[in-house]
Specification:
Blueprint lengths: L15 E6 L5 E6 L4 E5 L5 E5 L7 E6 L4 E6 L4 E5 L4
Antiparallel strand pairs: 1-2, 2-3, 3-4, 5-6, 6-7
């Protein structure tokens, strides 16, 4: 087994709260207290999208519905459903 360090999130002042893989394992997402969700490619570690136009407070959790749709819950008492292919 080998491990790689993905550095896309360096320099942020808020912690990462939750990390979840998509059902296929092709992507993974990171929910952050900085109100954003980061989507990564599992193969190369590149940050392929940042979802930052929805929550007004930190994101607590995320769940993948399939490899395209995720839902996120936040301290702002909202749940947002995102299509990661359209961001």
């Amino acid at each position: 087994m080998s491990f790689r360090n993905f550095n896309c999130l360096e320099g942020r002042s808020k912690p990462s709260v939750s990390v979840k893989y998509s059902p296929s394992g092709r992507l993974f997402s990171v929910a952050s207290a900085d109100k954003k969700i980061y989507i990564f490619n599992s193969e190369n570690g590149q940050c392929s999208a940042t979802l930052d136009e929805g929550h007004s407070h930190g994101v607590n959790d995320i769940v993948w519905v399939d490899d395209r749709i995720i839902a996120s819950g936040s301290d702002d008492h909202t749940v947002i459903v995102w299509d990661v292919e359209t961001v």
